[in-house]
Batch of 4 targets.
Target 1
Amino acid sequence: MTDRHSGETLVETGRLVAEGVGHSVRLQAQDRLFGLGDKAFRLDRRGHAVTLWNTDAFKYQRGTDPLYKSVPFVLKQGAETNVGLFYDNTFRSRFDLGAWMDDWLHYESAGGDLDLYILHAPTALGVVESYARLTGRTPMLPKWALGYHQCRYSYMDEADIRGVAEGFRSREIPCDALYFDIHYMDGYRVFTWDPKAFPDPKALTDDLKDLGVRTVVIVDPGVKVDPDYFAYQEGTTRRFFCENPDGTDFTDTVWPGDVHWPDFSKIEARMWWGETHQRYLDAGVTGFWNDMNEPAILGGRDFPDEVRFAFEDRGTGPTDHREAHNVYGLLMAKATHEGLRTIRPDERPFLLTRACFAGSQRYAAAWTGDNVSSWEHLLLSLQICQSLSLSGLGFCGPDIGGF
């Protein structure tokens, strides 16, 4: 491909692969390669081969791959030419960044189309800006989101939370938000509160707000299989869950036990999920934290390939998990963000997500997942955040002291 104005060769491409889709780009000796989201390598990816498949990578280490996010965007920075390559394909993909053949970048995907955007600008920053214009920018977040956020696994009851907030204030240590992990829920049922540990969540959040502390609750996608649980009743009655090929709801295990997962590629399912956050807003919650949305199953398993997704926005009929997996987190964030904007149109939502695809920055900030307490991870967290920023996710952060 050449620049139509200068005639300069931007990328020299190679042949496609025999199975799936593929593409190759010749590399020059000076080229450096950046991007691809949360990869646990040095910032310059050249010489590595990586996979894009959102994965619950608990206690990952340097070199662990894949991780939580899939962003098929590569910034190729050369001595004179800066080019961005965005492969808009959600299937499991692999990038060989000069590991096999030093002078070629190879891309291949297990399915879908070769839908490639080539972005060119005089500077590397210009390429990243072009990518942001293409895939979307992060909306303005609430001012408190810029402060210090205190989170741990886990605060077990109201007294625990109050003690932490009061401890920060008595020591005059800045703190703008406290996070509630999975133990605030009634039996890990999303959209509920444990009636013994958190008997009056509105009074608690009001008191915290008086201290200048906002509240962020974890929201996992798995809905407990329980006939007496409102979210299960509504989701099954309205057929909002991911389905097996025979039309039954797909079931597997997360924190609550057996769960179903919402099919966020169904438009009405997204609306239902987003609007159900009214329950949290009524309780005074000010922010939301999407976890386990790779989607993750206990034991590290994936959905079976044949699990069905509607993909209604596309209008071409349903697809299966192979195509839907990498965008599950994005669609969950979209459902939440749009629901919050509908319920409280005059307030800026704050949403944090673990799993991402290209464009997730339109709906949510991101963090670097379940890291560990080590000097290596302190360095790695900075490198991953820089890489996420180059991949469009400019509002991001780590668990500073490790998970």
Target 2
Amino acid sequence: PRLRIGAVLLAAGEGRRMGGVAKPLIRLQGVPLISRLLVALSGAGVDEVVVVTGHARHAIEDEVRSFVVTLAHNDAHADGQQRSVRVGLAALGGSFDAVIIVLADQPLIGASDLTELIGAFKKRPAGHVVVPVVDGRRGNPVVIDDVALARVLASDANLGCRHLIDREPGLVYAHETANTRFVTDLDTLDDVRDLALRTGWRLELPALEPTTS
């Protein structure tokens, strides 16, 4: 049977390691990363998407205005990603069989990658969080069920923790894959340059947004 799937797209980060660049607005081949991800989520058949804003809120809201999404603002985005996860999950309407938590700085994630994760979630033998693992490296996005969702909302689980698999083996199902798109993200300006050199694609940075202290 078809699953009812929600998604939380995290677009609140301050881009501190890039000096204030709003990473969701980085353009790859002329298209902002956040728009690419929203198209991918639609293509994967996701029923509802919550976009969590924080840094560069108004610019990001303007960019997603043409998409059917729910906007949720994290006014404490400087406190870290986990607060944004909780804000996004709390803003989802109704109940879902699975929720995908997506980072807005993953430039290569497409509908087929999300479909791969949804398939892994359906077939998992155990666990409440599906995490892609590539050559021992933990990747993103992750897919969670209602048990994990309840734990996150109760501030009991940090899905962004790189050691989650080791600390919570009963909670996590590691989806072993050779798909390197799950471990490709843009944290620094060097990451942007490296991706441009590796792919030959054009990447353009948005105007800098001041970070909060």
Target 3
Amino acid sequence: HLASASYRSRLTNRRGPGWWRQAARAVRPFLDAGQNELLAAELRYQTGFGKYPMPKGAIHGDLFCDNVLFDGERVAGVIDFGFAATDFFAYDLAITVNDWCIVRDGATRGALAPDLAQAMTDAYQRVRPLTDSEREQWPSLLRAAALRFWLSRLYDLHLPRPGELVHAHDPAHFERILRDRVAHLPRVGAAGC
């Protein structure tokens, strides 16, 4: 993010708030009443996303564990820049935390793993400290990141695009993550994140 701060080219986030609303309309028929309620409530909550004064620049937009290659303990490469865009740096961090820093199994699957989330956000802040606005918006950013991937997975499952080689992932995973973020509202630097 530090390196991309001076990158002047701009690329619209193809999976940003405009797409969220369009995708939500398309997937609603496939959802039960509780899921539709969650989706409608989250879209209302996220109204105005993108209007906060937070640092923006080039982001990866999909920095999941399986998009980072390691050679032992060293990062050897980053792949899959298909959703790279210009957006909030802290949103990119939230996307990453929602994948890398979660409970992987059991009754609390999808919940933030506090020690992992704290370690990642602390490490990030040693290089690029978050602004007050980013810290204030952190719970909303985590929720926005969960909403984006829940919608993507619902869309890919129920409305596959002809000719695309997209593997449909289970949307329930990010539904659980979104429900957890709505219920717990984690803060940067606080217990739980």
Target 4
Amino acid sequence: MYRFLLRLLVIALSVGGALQAAWEERQLHGRGYVSAESIKSFYAFDQLNRNGKEIVMQNQRVRLQLRTGSHECFMNGVKFVFSYPVESSGGKTWVSKIDLTKLVDPVLRPSFISSAGNFNTVIIDPGHGGKDPGATNSLGTEAGYNLKVSNYLKEILEKQYKYRVIMTRDSNRYLSLQQRVDIANQVRDNAIFVSIHHNSGQSKARGLETFTLSPVGVSHYGRGLKASDFRAKTGNQQDSANVALATSVHGSLLSMLKDKKTGKAYTLDRGIKRARFSVLTGVKHPSILVECGFMTHQYEARLINDPGYQKTLAKAIGYAIQKYRFAVGRPKPGNARQ
């Protein structure tokens, strides 16, 4: 069940010594792009197959799927949302360089991330609280569910994996976004930061989303570029580590949230996305924000209220943190990236 993560997060073992080809680059729409052919060579994919707009590259460990004109990329079945669409030009397929360097590369080569050192501390941030209940429905409040999942996660991390755990809140109290950032940044040890949330939207909207901070030059998900998007934030020093952590957590959630007998998924994959949430822009540690389901969806609302579902969420995130630590804790190659 969990081999997916091991395959996706230790790809460096298979490609680290095979990176010989340079990237073929060109400018499209004023942005840098890299050809699919050079991506294949650089990351040692055995095959590159095209079927209309669909492009698939794969080797024994990874299957990378792209579609011309689409922002979606799938690596071993996990959805990533690009900042810019895949392009077709001159008979070739092109991926924006910022998506390749800031999204694809950290997933394929986690041991090359120079900023992701060994860590023994996990900061858990249960979103909302006190006068801010977050999303609500007839069964409960987002603030309450965030705290329940966070408490289960704390127990797993401490007892099973022996981490030091810091909670931004451990009761139903209000904290400003800046207070959460300040609590996280007071931690001097190497640490990671995981903010737990539950979503809301239209009645048919459902599924899991995991967010990392948008890199410099990339907008908040769902809106256009602003001048402020070109200014580096504190969290941008961890761009690559953020994506590797998000990949581990998102993939683990998708793997575990299934019916054991039928294999049917309890939820949908809405993808790993980039945003400029305040807790992501300000925290100095590798950071992600996880949306664990939609409280406004009739079926998912009942799931979210189920202690068994809450414990599975916590189990999946705890397992993913341990696998991320294993992946980025390897000795760093000479050309490690930030």
